[in-house]
Amino acid sequence: MIIILRTVAVALVLSFVLGLLLGLFKKIFAVKVDPKVEAIQAELSGGNCGGCGYAGCAAFAQAVVNGEAPANGCVAGGASVAKKIAELMGVEVSAVKKAAILTCQGTKDCALSRGTYNGVQTCAAAVQAVNGTKLCAFGCAGLGDCVAVCTFGALRMGENGIPVIDYDKCVGCGKCARTCPKKLFTIVDTSIKGSVALCANRSDNKPPIKKNCSKGCIKCGICEKKCPEQCIKVTNGIPVVDYTKCTSCGECIKACPDKVLALIQDVVHA
């Protein structure tokens, strides 16, 4: 019995000493956090979406205080968070609203399937195994990797086999763009107006394009010819727009035989 009591006593003493040492070490090696960093981090969503270009909200807050990131860099927070951070930093900024656009219209109805895919049900696996689920090598695989990573619930798989974006929820964080193995999402500033190509087929082999997808861009160049501002050019197989010149007249959209083009403002506010 005495041995047991001595053992307990020794254990308690050791625990007390170790506790004191841990507390001492914590004070000695504590990393001081700038109050501004804590204040900025408190205003952020905590979603760690990466849309700011940093690993997470804490890293972004530190970067703002260090002068390495703009006060309006939190795309998820929008105007309200940008305003609060600007006040904390004593600067003036304007909020930038961003959103994702899916540059593929290859639904089940218009894009031919390669066949039944029985492998791991992710876009990444399907692309690695058989280069996707559609005959169009650039088309959406339709297995929802983008939906799985969307922090804000702004994406869902539509019945037509391609992702649907809820623009009331989309903040343009870019997770979908970084995850998509076909790189079918583009992140835009929603204040920009002008046309955008909703096709990512960059093949220069024209005959199979229309056969594999009825909404594929056939590189006819009519959009270039019809543009009164000469601000659109087919580059690497995709119509690319100079938004400093585009007036959103819509002539390229009317002329496109495959309905590949649409106005950004119509897409993100649909």
Q: Write down how many β-strands occur, each being a DSSP E stretch of 2 or more residues.
A: 8
Low-confidence residue ranges: none
User: What summary fits the major beta sheet?
Assistant: 2 strands, antiparallel
What is the CA-atom radius of gyration, in angstroms?
A: 26 Å
How far apart, in Å, are the first and last alpha carbons? 79 Å
Instruction: Indicate the proportion of strand residues.
Output: 5-15%
Question: What is the overall shape?
Answer: elongated
Order of secondary-structure elements: HHHHEHHEEHEEHHEEHEH
Count of DSSP H/I helices: 11
What class do helices, strands and sheet pairing give? alpha+beta
Q: Can you walk through the features of this model?
A:
The structure is a single chain. With 270 residues, the protein is an alpha+beta fold. It is built from eleven helices and eight strands. The chain has a two-stranded antiparallel ribbon. A two-stranded antiparallel ribbon has the order 2-3. Strands 5-8 form a two-stranded antiparallel ribbon. A hairpin with a 5-residue loop joins strand 2 and strand 3. Helix 2 crosses helix 3 and helix 2 packs antiparallel against helix 4. It starts with a helix and ends with a helix. The model has no long low-confidence stretch (mean pLDDT 90).
